[in-house]
Design goal:
- The structure is a single chain.
- The protein has three domains: 45 residues, Arc Repressor Mutant, subunit A, CATH 1.10.10; 42 residues; 53 residues.
- The protein has 156 residues and is mainly alpha-helical.
- Helix 2 crosses helix 3 and helix 7 packs across helix 9.
- The longest helix has 16 residues.
- The N and C termini lie far apart (70 Å).
- It is elongated and about 65 Å long.
- It has nine helices and no strands.
Length: 156
Protein backbone atom coordinates (compact mmCIF):
# COMPACT_ATOMS: atom_id res chain seq x y z
CA UNK A 1 0.00 0.00 0.00
CA UNK A 2 2.85 2.40 0.81
CA UNK A 3 4.85 3.17 -2.33
CA UNK A 4 7.15 5.53 -0.45
CA UNK A 5 10.30 3.42 -0.46
CA UNK A 6 13.59 4.65 1.02
CA UNK A 7 14.86 5.42 -2.49
CA UNK A 8 11.67 7.35 -3.33
CA UNK A 9 12.03 9.18 0.00
CA UNK A 10 15.62 10.07 -0.91
CA UNK A 11 14.55 11.49 -4.28
CA UNK A 12 11.70 13.41 -2.61
CA UNK A 13 13.98 14.83 0.11
CA UNK A 14 16.79 15.83 -2.25
CA UNK A 15 14.25 17.54 -4.48
CA UNK A 16 12.86 19.48 -1.52
CA UNK A 17 16.37 20.42 -0.39
CA UNK A 18 17.24 21.59 -3.91
CA UNK A 19 14.26 23.96 -3.95
CA UNK A 20 14.68 25.48 -0.49
CA UNK A 21 17.04 25.47 2.45
CA UNK A 22 15.63 22.99 4.99
CA UNK A 23 16.62 21.66 8.39
CA UNK A 24 15.90 18.31 10.03
CA UNK A 25 12.89 19.75 11.88
CA UNK A 26 11.36 20.92 8.59
CA UNK A 27 11.93 17.73 6.64
CA UNK A 28 11.29 14.98 9.22
CA UNK A 29 7.51 15.62 9.60
CA UNK A 30 7.12 15.68 5.81
CA UNK A 31 8.83 12.30 5.51
CA UNK A 32 6.75 10.80 8.31
CA UNK A 33 3.52 12.17 6.82
CA UNK A 34 4.33 10.44 3.54
CA UNK A 35 4.60 7.12 5.38
CA UNK A 36 8.31 6.68 6.03
CA UNK A 37 9.13 4.88 9.30
CA UNK A 38 10.74 7.07 12.00
CA UNK A 39 13.98 5.03 11.98
CA UNK A 40 14.19 5.21 8.20
CA UNK A 41 13.50 8.96 8.31
CA UNK A 42 16.32 9.51 10.80
CA UNK A 43 18.70 7.41 8.70
CA UNK A 44 17.74 9.37 5.60
CA UNK A 45 18.24 12.69 7.40
CA UNK A 46 21.69 11.53 8.54
CA UNK A 47 22.54 10.65 4.93
CA UNK A 48 21.32 14.04 3.72
CA UNK A 49 23.54 15.75 6.30
CA UNK A 50 26.56 13.68 5.25
CA UNK A 51 25.92 14.62 1.62
CA UNK A 52 25.39 18.28 2.68
CA UNK A 53 21.85 18.57 1.39
CA UNK A 54 21.05 19.62 4.96
CA UNK A 55 23.47 21.92 6.75
CA UNK A 56 22.42 23.71 9.92
CA UNK A 57 24.93 26.57 9.50
CA UNK A 58 23.71 27.26 5.97
CA UNK A 59 20.08 26.93 7.10
CA UNK A 60 20.60 29.30 10.04
CA UNK A 61 22.22 31.92 7.80
CA UNK A 62 19.38 31.76 5.28
CA UNK A 63 16.70 31.77 8.00
CA UNK A 64 18.22 34.77 9.78
CA UNK A 65 18.61 36.71 6.54
CA UNK A 66 15.01 36.09 5.48
CA UNK A 67 13.39 36.77 8.85
CA UNK A 68 15.38 39.94 9.52
CA UNK A 69 15.10 41.32 5.99
CA UNK A 70 11.57 40.38 4.95
CA UNK A 71 9.65 39.71 8.18
CA UNK A 72 11.43 42.38 10.25
CA UNK A 73 12.03 40.07 13.18
CA UNK A 74 14.45 40.99 15.93
CA UNK A 75 17.39 38.89 17.07
CA UNK A 76 15.55 37.44 20.09
CA UNK A 77 12.64 36.13 18.04
CA UNK A 78 14.94 34.68 15.37
CA UNK A 79 17.11 32.99 18.01
CA UNK A 80 14.04 31.44 19.66
CA UNK A 81 12.62 30.21 16.35
CA UNK A 82 15.92 28.54 15.46
CA UNK A 83 16.16 26.92 18.89
CA UNK A 84 12.66 25.50 18.44
CA UNK A 85 13.85 23.97 15.17
CA UNK A 86 16.74 22.29 16.98
CA UNK A 87 19.51 24.36 15.41
CA UNK A 88 22.70 24.44 17.49
CA UNK A 89 23.76 27.56 19.40
CA UNK A 90 27.01 27.86 17.47
CA UNK A 91 25.21 28.05 14.12
CA UNK A 92 22.64 30.48 15.54
CA UNK A 93 25.26 32.83 17.01
CA UNK A 94 27.30 32.73 13.81
CA UNK A 95 24.26 33.59 11.69
CA UNK A 96 23.10 36.39 14.00
CA UNK A 97 26.60 37.88 14.07
CA UNK A 98 26.45 38.22 10.28
CA UNK A 99 23.43 40.56 10.45
CA UNK A 100 24.32 44.07 9.26
CA UNK A 101 23.67 46.35 12.23
CA UNK A 102 22.75 49.37 10.11
CA UNK A 103 20.20 47.42 8.06
CA UNK A 104 18.85 45.84 11.26
CA UNK A 105 18.31 49.27 12.82
CA UNK A 106 16.79 50.64 9.62
CA UNK A 107 14.38 47.70 9.55
CA UNK A 108 13.30 48.46 13.11
CA UNK A 109 12.85 52.15 12.27
CA UNK A 110 10.73 51.34 9.22
CA UNK A 111 8.66 48.83 11.20
CA UNK A 112 7.97 51.35 13.97
CA UNK A 113 7.19 54.15 11.51
CA UNK A 114 4.64 51.89 9.85
CA UNK A 115 3.14 50.90 13.19
CA UNK A 116 3.00 54.53 14.36
CA UNK A 117 0.48 55.34 11.63
CA UNK A 118 -1.99 52.82 13.08
CA UNK A 119 -1.42 53.37 16.81
CA UNK A 120 -4.28 55.02 18.64
CA UNK A 121 -3.27 56.60 21.91
CA UNK A 122 -4.55 59.38 24.15
CA UNK A 123 -1.07 60.71 24.96
CA UNK A 124 2.60 60.33 24.03
CA UNK A 125 3.33 57.99 26.93
CA UNK A 126 0.69 55.50 25.80
CA UNK A 127 1.87 55.79 22.18
CA UNK A 128 5.49 55.14 23.21
CA UNK A 129 4.52 52.13 25.33
CA UNK A 130 2.49 50.61 22.50
CA UNK A 131 5.40 51.03 20.10
CA UNK A 132 7.85 49.56 22.63
CA UNK A 133 5.64 46.54 23.29
CA UNK A 134 5.27 46.02 19.56
CA UNK A 135 9.03 46.17 18.95
CA UNK A 136 9.83 43.82 21.83
CA UNK A 137 7.11 41.39 20.70
CA UNK A 138 8.86 41.28 17.32
CA UNK A 139 12.04 40.19 19.09
CA UNK A 140 14.02 43.42 19.13
CA UNK A 141 16.25 44.17 22.09
CA UNK A 142 14.51 46.50 24.60
CA UNK A 143 17.43 48.99 24.64
CA UNK A 144 17.44 49.23 20.84
CA UNK A 145 13.64 49.56 20.80
CA UNK A 146 13.71 52.42 23.32
CA UNK A 147 16.28 54.31 21.24
CA UNK A 148 14.29 53.77 18.04
CA UNK A 149 11.05 54.94 19.66
CA UNK A 150 12.86 57.98 21.07
CA UNK A 151 14.09 58.89 17.59
CA UNK A 152 10.64 58.39 16.11
CA UNK A 153 8.36 59.95 18.71
CA UNK A 154 10.78 62.30 20.44
CA UNK A 155 12.33 62.44 23.89
CA UNK A 156 9.64 64.53 25.57
Amino acid sequence: MNDFTPEAAYRYATGRCARAELCRADLRPKLLARGLAPDAADALLDRLERERYIDEHRYAAAFVHDKVTYNHWGRHKVRQALRLKGIGDEAVCEALAAVDDDAYGAGLDALLASKLRTVRAVNDYERRMKLLRFAVSRGFEPERAVKAVDRLVGDD
